[in-house]
From TrEMBL:
UniProt xrefs under PROSITE patterns: TAT
Keywords from the named record: Signal
Coiled coil: none
Family annotation (Gene3D superfamilies): YVTN repeat-like/Quinoprotein amine dehydrogenase
Organism superkingdom: Bacteria
Organism of origin: Paraconexibacter algicola
Signal peptide residues on this chain, from the entry's feature table: 1-28
Matches recorded under InterPro entries: Host-pathogen_enzymatic-act (IPR051200), Quino_amine_DH_bsu (IPR011044), TAT_signal (IPR006311), WD40/YVTN_repeat-like_dom_sf (IPR015943)
Protein name per Swiss-Prot or TrEMBL: YncE family protein
Length: 324
């Protein structure tokens, strides 16, 4: 029985006992006037679950938790327009030129990949990229491609054209792919395999896994340094308070203290290491003496543009900007 029901029952029993003990001639209690209930103003909160930015920072996109919408964020930091993507958004990515947005939608709500036109604020098409699609990103260069991982136990990587009109290749990865980062030349990608405690490098043309590196348990979010020599990783688990940095030349792993529940990682253009710490409401510039930028709330996701970073509050949907 809930505490509320126990209190209500206790009050009822106490009232009945009092009536039995009262004299027979006791007057009846005067009727109580009904309480006046004033309705509070209804506030719609769109909780942030992921954020992405174009290379020039002019296009910001936020995916909403428990909704089927994404928000297109203007220069003033407000949500200019909402786009219904027809399913629960999981991850978002913006093409380098800012003319296309890719949205993966959840396994439990219309799984797939949705392409959005940010100028017209409308969906263009939906592509089938297998069950449980997750992280998505665009490659750069003349022949840009769109890369998506997912599938959980049937871990896969799909390569599509930049408009999302055609699936060009499907490659098997491993168990439970999570974080994704493509190399600067667009020929390969690094993927975190959460159920195998490792990161793998995959050739995007052949689908061949060219490298495997062991990691601490349950790797999640992943970022590749601008020089291609290091990887940053978050790890799942309620006690996670560190991120891992892998030296790709040596294959060594360093554990860097960040704070409770790191939710995302990234590198600035100059190679500074960033971590979003959801349990402390901070964006941390990692180093021998970490610099902490308080943003409050429960930040989720990270979009890095040059030396600037953007994150979104999972509780309020507010977008925060910090300078590394």
């Amino acid at each position: 029985m809930s505490s509320t029901r126990r209190e209500a029952l206790g009050a009822a029993v106490a009232g009945a006992t009092g009536l039995l003990a009262a004299p027979a001639v006791a007057p009846a209690a005067a009727p109580t006037a009904p309480a006046t209930i004033v309705a509070a103003r209804s506030v719609t909160v769109r909780r942030g679950v992921a954020i992405a930015a174009s290379r020039d920072g002019r296009t910001l996109v936020v995916a909403h938790d428990r909704r089927r919408t994404i928000a297109l964020i203007g220069r003033g930091g407000r949500a200019d327009r909402l786009v219904d993507v027809g399913g629960q958004p999981v991850e978002v990515a913006v093409s380098p030129d800012g003319r296309r947005i890719a949205v993966s939608t959840a396994a439990w709500d219309q799984p797939g990949l949705v392409m959005v036109d940010p100028v017209a604020a409308r969906t263009l098409r939906r592509a089938d990229v297998g069950p449980a699609p997750g992280a998505a990103t665009f490659t750069t260069g003349r022949r840009a491609r769109l890369v998506v991982v997912g599938g959980e136990q049937e871990g896969t990587l799909h390569v599509l054209d930049a408009d999302g009109t055609a699936v060009l290749a499907r490659h098997e990865l491993g168990l439970v792919p999570r974080g994704l980062a493509v190399t600067a030349d667009g020929r390969a990608a690094w993927v975190a395999l959460a159920a195998q405690d490792e990161v793998v490098r995959i050739d995007l043309r052949s689908g061949r896994l060219t490298r495997r590196l062991a990691t601490p348990p349950r790797p999640e979010r992943l970022a590749l340094a601008p020089d291609g020599r290091r990887l940053l990783l978050t790890h799942a688990g309620p006690d996670a308070d560190r991120v891992s940095e892998i030296d790709l030349r040596r294959g060594t792993v360093r554990r860097l203290p960040a704070g409770p529940l790191p939710a995302a990682v990234g590198y600035t253009r100059r190679g500074r290491r960033l971590a979003v710490v959801g349990g402390a409401g901070q964006v941390v510039v990692l180093g021998p003496r970490p610099r902490r930028r308080a943003v409050g709330g429960a930040p989720r996701g990270l979009a890095v543009v040059g030396e600037r970073a953007f994150t979104v509050d999972h509780l309020t949907g507010a977008v925060h900007r910090v300078t590394a």
